[in-house]
What does this fold into?
Amino acid sequence: MSEEMILIQGGSFLMGTDSEEGFPKDREGPATRVTVKDFYIDPFTVTNEEFLRFFLDTGYITEAEKFGSSAVFYKLIADPDERAAYRSLPGTKWWLEVPGASWRKPEGKNSDIKDRMDHPVVHVSRNDALAYCKWAGKRLPTEAEWEYAARGGHEQKRFAWGDDLYQDDKIHVNIWQGEFPVQNTEEDGYLGTAPVKTFEPNDYGLYQTAGNVWEWCLNPGGIALDMFTKKSSEDFYKENSNHSKDEYGLRWGSFLCHASYCYRYRVAGRNSNTGDSSTSNMGFRCVKDA
It folds into this structure.
C-alpha cells in the first residue's frame, strides 16, 4: 500500500473562485464557503506498483481491458505509422483510440510499465478506482475534500504554492509547455506522466497538486459548488458509490493542460467524465474518514 496517509484537519474554506479565467460551463464559482470534516488522504496518486498489487490479489480486470481499447494522446505513440492506423476521437484529433491500451500497456500492446512503477496508474475508470478503494479500505474524495487538501491551507490562491506558475524561475508542475497540441518543449522534463513524488509537496505534504494526471472524485461533475454546503462526504459516498454512466468530478489537471486550451490545473479548476471512461491522463488517489 502507499505511504502513510496524511491527516487533514477539517475546517471551513472558500471553495472555487470568482475569477473569470476559468470556464463558465465548469461552474467553478461563485466562491462558496464549505466545511469539511477531518479525513485522511494519500500523499500521492495510486501508482502502477500499487495497482499491480491490487490486480495480483484480486485478478481485477479494468474496463479498458474489457472494452479492448482506451484513449491515448497521439504524441505518446512512438511509431508514426502506428498513429496513422488509429482512429481519432470526435472533436479531439490528438486523442487516439488505441486497441490494447490499458493500465499495463499505457500506449498499446507494445508498451509496458516496467520502468514506470512509481508513475500514476492511468487508463483506470472511476468504476475501476472505486473497486481499488474498496479493496484498500478507502474511498474517493469529494471535490470539496480534494480542493481543501490540495490548497494546503492557502485559501483562494491560483495554485497550491501561490498565484504564479513559476517559482524561482522554474516550473514545478507537469503540464504542457509550448504550443498545444503541436509542440511540447518538455521544460518540466516530461512528455507524459511523471513519477508521483516529482516536484515539491504542498504544505500539507501532498505531491503533484497540479498537473500530471486528472484524479477521480466521488461526486457528480456537473453540480454547483453550493451543493457542498448541503451534503456531507458520507452523503456523496452513499449516493455515488455505485457504477454509473453519469459524469463525475475530476480534479488537478494533467500533463496535457495548457493555458491556451485547458487551464484547469489551477486549484479551482474542474472537469468531469463518465464513470466508465479511461484515458492516458486519468488516475486517482484515495481518502478515508478520520
The mean pLDDT is 92. The two ends are 18 Å apart (CA to CA). The CA atoms of residues 28 and 269 lie 7 Å apart.
